[in-house]
Design goal:
heterodimer; A: alpha+beta; Protein Transport Mog1p, Chain A; 3 domains; 14-stranded antiparallel sheet; three-stranded antiparallel sheet; about 35% strand; transmembrane helix (chain A)
């Protein structure tokens, strides 16, 4: 083939590719809408507004008709909202060898956070250490592990604490103590290796630390009326960082909606029922389709990222949750900001 | 004359999406790239609009985003033929020219991203070799090399009879 004839073919083929471009309306809306909505205030106040939006957005949106909310129309593309930082002020300064920080999640009202360390290698049996710090009078602390059944008294650097040693039916070990007035610390060891001496050493090492904050970018759009955003976090599960948001009821834990944004796709894609969400391919998995799928799930593909929406209702496991899965998936906005603490150690 | 960011977006979003789709061979990541670039451009528009050619600057941002895109990792693997067939079903017209065009269409999606970017800049955006070198941050000789190797790869995809006929 002569070069100029091949070049003509290439020009035509590139034109064919370009002809498949999406209509620009969604892109224009996604790019310009945030600018119009952004309040003209000092940047210092912007973070506060973002946090309020994170918590309160569903209060304004949940009663909207399906598909009619502004988030739904402007959010067909995944426009991550402004990131919110949750600072870390105290933490362990000693941990067993071989484990790295893999997960953090925070109560959205800023009253508590859980940090978790485990090995990078899933084949390695080892320590799994979790440190929870929360305000004693937090009204949402029940979403964090509390070690409330610890009874055995211990001394933590002059502070009164209680531990729960491993038992036959529960191999986890936990420690709970008051770091300072109004600030509770819980250390939980849940790995295949745990012992009270190590637990106490971790607990006694807790002091003020300088650690990068947890950074979360996510806003629910539509939610069931009895749920509101409760907590959010970032996790690295087998090397794939992801963001997750959870909407919870005011009381109880029998119902929740969880959203994950990650590069990990569904494990049993062939079992999913095809759907279309935001104009993109999606898969729906009803609860029970696999043993490990205990809630209805909807997975939406964005290039090599996946948006996973999970709807769980203990009292209505067999109910039709697809409409809400679709509404949540259509209206949520979530991203994965840089989190410099991932993989770190004290 | 200075142009507002809003006006720039309204006037150029379609062209940028077409360019990004030619680069990625997939409209979905193309949307993500253009959106990401425009959001960043909006944040520093006060500086961009002072440039001699804001459009050229944003165009280059799209190219750079495509080349450095983390999420490109999966897409650099060739698109499955089933995907391409679903978008452009095989034509009922069995002429050689249609076959060749389809083969080139698929072959472009399999090119390494730098070669693909060079080909798109040359044959879609009609840039000179010097302009391509500037946009890809390489020498003009390297730009020519990218295009030459890309054309060789596309030519090798064609059946022997087509190569002989042309």
């Amino acid at each position: 083939m002569k070069t100029d004839e091949l070049e003509i073919l290439v020009r035509e083929a590139l034109g064919d590719h370009a002809d498949r471009a999406a209509e620009p309306a969604d892109t224009i809306a996604a790019v310009l809408a945030p600018r119009r909505r952004r309040p003209v205030i000092a940047y210092a106040a912007a973070a506060v507004v973002a946090l309020i939006l994170l918590v309160a957005a569903p209060l304004f949106l949940r009663d909207a008709e399906p598909g009619s909310s502004s988030v739904g129309s402007a959010g067909r593309l995944m426009v991550a909202p402004k990131a919110v930082e949750f600072p870390v002020r105290i933490g362990p300064t000693w941990l067993p060898e071989g484990i790295k920080e893999q997960e953090r999640y925070a109560l959205l009202d800023g009253t508590g956070m859980t940090r978790s360390w485990w090995s990078d290698d899933p084949q390695v049996n080892g320590y799994n250490v979790n440190v929870v710090v929360y305000d004693e009078y937090s009204t949402t602390r029940h979403w964090l592990y509390g070690c409330d059944d610890a009874t055995e008294q211990v001394d933590i650097g002059g502070k009164y604490g209680r531990i729960r040693p491993p038992a036959v039916d529960d191999q986890t070990t936990c420690l709970r103590f008051s770091y300072e007035p109004g600030k509770i610390v819980v250390v939980l060891m849940a790995g295949s290796v745990n012992d009270v001496d190590t637990l106490l050493r971790v607990g006694r090492s807790i002091q003020p630390v300088s650690s990068p904050p947890l950074v979360v970018a996510g806003v629910f759009g539509e939610l069931p009326a009895d749920l509101s955003p409760g907590f959010a976090g970032v996790t690295r599960d087998v090397g794939a960082p992801g963001t997750w948001l959870v909407a919870v009821p005011a009381v109880g834990a029998q119902k929740y909606v969880q959203v994950n944004w990650t590069t990990k796709g569904p494990e049993s894609a062939s079992l999913g029922k095809p759907k279309t969400v935001r104009g993109r391919p999606a898969l729906y998995f009803p609860a029970g389709v696999r043993d490990y799928i205990r809630s209805d799930e909807l997975w939406v593909q964005f290039g090599d990222h996946w948006l996973k929406v999970l709807y769980h209702d203990e009292k209505d496991l067999k109910g039709d949750h697809v409409p809400w899965l679709l509404k949540v998936a259509e209206s949520v906005a979530v991203g994965l900001p840089r989190n410099d603490w991932i993989g770190g150690r004290p | 004359m200075l142009i507002s960011f809003e006006q720039y977006v309204r006037d150029n979003a379609r062209d940028l999406l077409r360019y990004a789709t030619a680069l990625t061979c997939d409209p979905h990541p193309a949307q993500d790239i253009v959106q990401s670039v425009l959001l960043r451009a909006g944040q520093k528009w006060a500086g961009i609009e002072q440039l001699a050619s804001p459009a050229a600057y944003v165009h280059r941002m799209v190219t750079n985003e495509f080349l450095s895109w983390r999420r490109r990792a999966v897409r650099t693997v060739s698109l499955p033929h089933g995907v391409i067939d679903a978008v452009v079903p095989p034509s009922a017209d069995e002429t050689d020219s249609v076959d060749q065009r389809q083969l080139v269409f698929e072959g472009i999606a399999r090119l390494p991203r730098k070669q693909r970017a060079a080909v798109v800049l040359r044959y879609y955006a009609n840039k000179s070799f010097a302009e391509i070198a500037g946009e890809l941050a390489c020498s003009e000789a390297t730009a020519r090399s990218h295009i030459s190797r890309a054309l060789a790869a596309l030519r090798s995809d064609l059946p022997a009879r087509a190569k002989e006929a042309l």
